[in-house]
Amino acid sequence: MNIFSGLSAFPITPMTPDGQVITSDLARLVRRIEEGGADSVGLLGSTGTYMFLSREERRRAVVAAVGSVSSIPVIVGVGAMRTDGAQALARDAAESGAAGLLLAPVSYTPLTEQEVYRHFEAVAAATDLPLCIYSNPGTTKFTFSPALVARLAEIPTVAAIKLPLPIGDLPADLAAFRTAAPGLSVGYSGDWGCKEALLAGADCWFSVVGGLFPEAAAALTRAAMAGDRIAADQADATFAGLWALFREHGSLRLVHEAARLMGLTDAGLPPPLLGIDDDLRRELTSALPRQTVPLSASGVRTISPQTGPGFHDPARTGA
Fold first, then answer.
1. Measured distance CA(67)–CA(69) in Å, rounded
2. CATH number for the segment(s) 6-249
3. What single-letter DSSP state applies at residue 141?
């Protein structure tokens, strides 16, 4: 079975201000992902603020997530500044029951292609788990060329690549990586464009919203992968408001606030990251998929089981 296919849903990692993972909240998020029909959990990605956690807390997160699901794999981000640090994280993930690894070339100093190749070669050798290349030039300042990906694909455990949405033609971008590394699973992040990526033949949607709205994201994934554009467009329209906000503001701060609004956690962002202001919170509240019942006298909207236990209206609660 290819674990890097379908909907890979990425939850936030609820943590205290001093960086301790709130494992009960994380377990709740991961169970919702499984129950919502996702194909895998993408733990400790950028949405999961992995770079703000110590090695021990990352291990605790993996143990909590793996212990909370029974039918889908947990893919764990193991990016670190040093190669030996990433190797240690990879071994921790394997020992804690992870099914696969996700590796970004994290560095303070921009890396060369040869440095990235050697880094991946060393981390891949640390375990026998399948590894996904994590291309996130917005944070790492490194862009994977098809030629480098072709070299990396020769490493026995490298099995997939997670790509950002291209600036230009998406089918051409997909074709370039397919040609360079025909054995790799190719998936995309950048939620607002992943419907088109899946319709074009991508193998996986690495999804931010899948971490909070797994049922709706799974419906979109299934329709697009089946080539049903009408159903995919209808499912995608559920997220239209969020896509507009993600494109303007990025998804990280918004998805953390959404989890709070939905009553899934009280955790905030790790310092020095700050939350969103009241105006943007009101926009976000209006943009969340409408799986709610009318506002009650208590000022709380009750979400359906597919969405969460409670949706707190910021105008009434000051959340």
1. 6
2. 3.20.20.70
3. -
Residues of the chain with CATH 3.20.20.70: 6-249
Cα separation, 298 vs 294, whole angstroms: 11
195 part of the active site = no
Q: Is 44 left (phi over 0), alpha (psi -120 to 50) or beta?
A: left
Instruction: Look at strands 300-301 and 185-188 and give their pairing.
Output: unpaired
Is 50 known to be catalytic?
A: no
* 56: Cβ contacts below 8 Å, ≥ 6 apart: none
**50, 162, 188, 195: the active-site residue:** 162
Q: What is the DSSP string of 249-302?
A: H-SHHHHHHHHHHTTS----PPTT-----HHHHHHHHHHS---BPPPPTTSEEP
- What digits encode the pLDDT tens for the residues 231-256? 999 999 999 999 999 999 999 999 99
pLDDT of residue 264: 96
In sequence order, what are the residues at sequence separation of 6 or more whose Cβ sits closer than 8 angstroms to the Cβ of residue 115? 105
User: β-strand 40-43 against 185-188: which pairing, if any?
Assistant: unpaired
Taking the C-alpha atoms of residue 67 and residue 314, their distance in angstroms, rounded to an integer, is 33
| C-alpha separations of 52 from 18, 86, 156 in Å | 10, 14, 30
User: Which residue of the set 50, 134, 188, 195 is catalytic?
Assistant: 134
Query: What percentage of the chain has pLDDT greater than the value 90?
Result: 90
Mean pLDDT of 281-294: 77
Supply the pLDDT for residue 290: 75
Sequence-distant (≥ 6) Cβ neighbours of residue 311 within 8 angstroms: 261, 262, 263, 288, 292, 300, 301, 302, 303
Q: Give the per-residue pLDDT at 305.
A: 33
Q: Are 104 and 139 in contact (CB under 8 A)?
A: yes
What is the pLDDT confidence band of residue 291, given thresholds at 50, 70 and 90?
Answer: low
What pTM was estimated for this model as a whole? 0.90
